[in-house]
Design goal:
The protein is of the alpha/beta class. The protein contains nine helices and eleven strands. It has one domain: 3-Layer(aba) Sandwich (Rossmann fold). Bound molecules: zinc ion (ZN).
Length: 301
């Protein structure tokens, strides 16, 4: 396997980087990866991940299509309720901050959010790397879902009012390349909305190496509010609002508890509740954080 080794911090280029802890790929391969931290800017990243071309096998086994439309069973009922709740929450946030209705959902998966926004009157399209997910979403909803190359080849500059990335930025190789392109595609008043896990959250601290949202090596970058601000500012953006995602602490804590002890719906749920209250008081302590981002100054790197 070919790996990608970082000799300097992928965010600030400092060479003061060192291993912080080892984390297992609990969900798919059980392989162990190292998280490295930069002493200069505090950025945490997955060291030696597979190169992009060989990352596919780490995504095998994620059956998000097959269970997403199975209506049977309590777990599935809860899953659908949770999904509908989150779609409505995302819509309200986007609709409040957006200055127009041209929307791109980058990493849209099977397109539920894109479809929801189309039904709310948005001119929304998705981009998705997975061929099957693209086809599924396009067939089910009749929406446009393009492959990633479209970001650079098809969409014209200054053509979007909102770009959303729901749990996507942490998966992107060379995130700064994408951010530069998002900046070109957005209008001057455009908004970038990014949701990522927060490794400084209460549940991350509680579970340590078992914290499910490390999700190595699929998650290449492990953001805190401070490092997110730094990455955005280095790419000509600025963070203007932060919000928590109310369901994430429960999901992440229950998964983490499972990785740690093999079960523990109740204890995971209780930890999730603690994290939920903590993030309700301060979004930046949340298990995941939603960042509302505007164009800022493009400072010389
Ligand atoms: Zn750094």
């Amino acid at each position: 396997m070919s790996i990608l080794h970082y000799d300097v911090c992928p965010l600030c280029k400092s060479s003061a980087i060192a291993e912080e802890r080892k984390v297992k790929d609990h969900s798919i391969t059980k392989e162990v990866f190292a998280l490295w931290r930069c002493a200069a800017c505090d950025f945490l990243f997955t060291q030696d991940p597979p190169v992009a071309e060989e990352a596919g096998r780490y995504y095998k086994g994620e059956e998000y299509i097959s269970h997403s439309d199975n209506q049977e069973g309590l777990v599935n009922k809860l899953y659908h309720k949770a999904r509908d709740f989150m779609l409505a929450q995302k819509y309200r946030l986007v609709n409040r901050v957006a200055n127009g209705k041209r929307l791109l959902d980058y990493g849209t998966g099977t397109g539920y959010f894109t479809d929801f926004m189309v039904r709310k009157g948005y001119s929304a399209e998705g981009i998705e790397i997975d061929t099957e997910a693209r086809k599924y979403g396009a067939d089910k909803f009749g929406i446009t879902i393009r492959p990633p190359g479209a970001l650079f080849n098809v969409l014209p500059a200054d053509s979007l009012d909102v770009i959303t990335l729901w749990h996507v930025l942490e998966h992107l190789y060379e995130p700064q390349t994408y951010l530069a392109r998002f900046r070109e595609l957005l209008s001057d008043q455009g908004k970038l909305i990014v949701a990522v896990p927060n490794h400084k959250s209460k549940d991350a601290k509680a579970y340590g190496a078992y914290w499910a949202a490390y999700d190595v090596p699929r998650h290449l970058w492990h953001f805190s509010p401070a490092t997110m601000r730094r990455m955005m500012e280095s790419s000509g953006f600025r963070v203007v609002e932060t919000h928590h995602m109310p369901l994430d602490p429960f999901y992440v804590s229950i998964m983490s508890q499972k990785y740690k002890t093999g079960g523990g719906l109740v204890s995971g749920g209780l930890k999730g509740l603690g994290s939920f209250f903590s993030s309700s008081a301060d979004a930046e302590r949340g298990s995941s954080v939603i960042y509302v981002i505007e164009k800022g100054d493009l400072s010389p790197a």
